[in-house]
Amino acid sequence: xxxxxxxxxxxxxxxxxxxxxxxxxxxxxxxxxxxxxxxxxxxxxxxxxxxxxxxxxxxxxxxxxxxxxxxxxxxxxxxxxxxxxxxxxxxxxxxxxxxxxxxxxxxxxxxxxxxxxxxxxxxxxxxxxxxxxxxxxxxxxxxxxxxxxxxxxxxxxxxxxxxxxxxxxxxxxxxxxxxxxxxxxxxxxxxxxxxxxxxxxxxxxxxxxxxxxxxxxxxxxxxxxxxxxxxxxxxxxxxxxxxxxxxxxxxxxxxxxxxxxxxxxxxxxxxxxxxxxxxxxxxxxxxxxxxxxxxxxxxxxxxxxxxxxxxxxxxxxxxxxxxxxxxxxxxxxxxxxxxxxx
Length: 342
Description:
The chain has two domains: 287 residues, Neuraminidase (6 Propeller); 35 residues. The longest helix has 31 residues. The chain is mostly beta strands. The chain is globular, with a radius of gyration of 22 Å. The protein has three helices and 23 strands. A hairpin with a 5-residue loop joins strand 13 and strand 14. The chain has a five-stranded antiparallel sheet with strand order 1-3-23-22-21.
């Protein structure tokens, strides 16, 4: 989906960003106007054509978009959805990620495989090994396996199956396994819904067409990994190669790579139903390319092997301990004075 971006630069770098977060120069790619895209939560690109879907309540159909973000047709979801939260593609087919579970009560989640040409599709159910999770991010790498990153404020989990998406039995279920923990940084990057720490919540994922670069986004930032041998789950098991601030939008959830490797970022309308729909932004491939090759050392899953406190954690602990000692000393001095007055 190639398009000369509109000449509207987004000064992401104007905000004070956390150390390690790059300020990318985003541009407005195009702006949706169809009300059916007010809840835009998932985005993917097949060849030169972009597809988009809303989440719960607007996930019964997929929009096919032209280069100006106008809807050229709606493709019905062949499965009665629960809460579709992301959109991916593999081998020319759309994959609707029915992963939403705000109340964390679902026994299974599902992937809907949809042929955009014929409208035919089916459902493959998946089960977590450790109970229900809310999730909004699906990535499919060069090995064809699904990778799900959960949406947890205390730290997300990375899950995968040992079966390629194309080979998942329908209806299943197929067991997922947990491969890593992912804890987004508190970057302080502006954007996202009010009263939420937007930088800590995972809202979408994507992989380049050649399978060499993976992206996981929060409401405010994009984490990028170089991928070897199509193994996205393995890539997400180590620290991200690069973190880029996203343009500030009301509720940024969707992310997709174009055929050229540019990164598209889309947002829901947010809490104001009278507001205009947010634009789809683009970060150019040259601005998001990781600066170094991936390391081979994976990140330990914090649920299995808690990490030792870092200096950034020890500093506030020392300060807190010192404060307690000061309070105790002052209290003791006051007590002594009281007794002396008696």
